[in-house]
């Protein structure tokens, strides 16, 4: 890891607690707690419509809105459009895990730090402002017009920083994310989270329990 110059981070689940945050946001509109999980269940199927070519590139706000409409229809809930738009924007305001802000601030002293998220640039910027995430840059899916685990997402992030792929380490609480990053040539670091993968399933370059432990 001595040659690593940048750490790029998965966001939903790894950096921020999407589930607790969205349970809180959906409760404001009287929606049942299960709404957050059902909505998240729509995440990968909607991403796949873009990855497969069935839908041209659209950003995550568009896909979140489609997923929300499906879930509300399944629950038999008729929510006004303005409330649906507000709920989609709630994905721009998610709470960080307790170790994240201090951990990122420390890592920033020695490394470039940036998100490598399926969220688009506007969402990532708004989320950073809300959660106090001290990124050096905003990277990820929108640069590549592709969604993880497409290797183009990881490589576009490294290319944007002018770094070789093995000079960049992907940090995630999802083993599948790290498998894809490794296949794209990046280094890998696993940090478990209570709502995501709890154990590493491979010999990742780093296995840590908090962001603070990623520091050299």
TrEMBL record:
Keywords: Hydrolase. PANTHER family: HALOACID DEHALOGENASE, TYPE II (AFU_ORTHOLOGUE AFUA_2G07750)-RELATED (PTHR43316:SF3), HYDROLASE, HALOACID DELAHOGENASE-RELATED (PTHR43316). SUPFAM superfamilies: HAD-like (SSF56784). Pfam families: Hydrolase (PF00702). One of its GO terms (molecular function) is hydrolase activity, acting on acid halide bonds, in C-halide compounds. It comes from the Bacteria. It comes from Solirubrobacter pauli. InterPro entries: 2-HAD, HAD-like_sf, HAD-SF_hydro_IA, HAD_sf, PGP-like_dom2, S-2-haloacid_dehalogenase. Belongs to the HAD-like hydrolase superfamily. S-2-haloalkanoic acid dehalogenase family. This is 2-haloacid dehalogenase. The keyword Hydrolase applies. The keyword Hydrolase applies.
């Amino acid at each position: 890891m001595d040659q690593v110059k940048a750490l790029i981070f998965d966001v939903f689940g790894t950096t921020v607690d999407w589930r607790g945050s969205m349970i809180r946001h959906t409760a404001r509109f009287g929606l049942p707690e299960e709404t957050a999980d059902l909505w998240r269940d729509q995440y990968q199927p909607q991403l796949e419509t873009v990855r497969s070519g069935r839908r041209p590139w659209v950003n995550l706000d568009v896909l979140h809105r489609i997923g929300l409409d499906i879930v509300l229809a399944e629950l038999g809930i008729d929510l006004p459009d303005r409330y649906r738009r507000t709920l989609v924007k709630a994905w721009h305001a998610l709470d960080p895990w307790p170790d994240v802000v201090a951990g990122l601030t420390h890592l920033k002293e020695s490394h470039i730090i940036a998100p490598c998220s399926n969220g688009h640039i506007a969402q990532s910027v708004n989320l950073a402002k809300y959660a106090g995430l001290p990124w050096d840059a905003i990277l990820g899916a929108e640069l590549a017009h592709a969604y993880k685990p497409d290797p183009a997402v990881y490589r576009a992030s490294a290319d944007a920083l002018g770094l070789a792929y093995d000079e960049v380490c992907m940090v995630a609480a999802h083993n599948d994310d790290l498998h894809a990053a490794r296949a794209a040539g990046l280094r890998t670091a696993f940090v478990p989270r209570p709502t995501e993968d709890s154990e590493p399933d491979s010999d990742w370059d780093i296995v840590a329990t908090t962001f603070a432990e990623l520091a050299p």
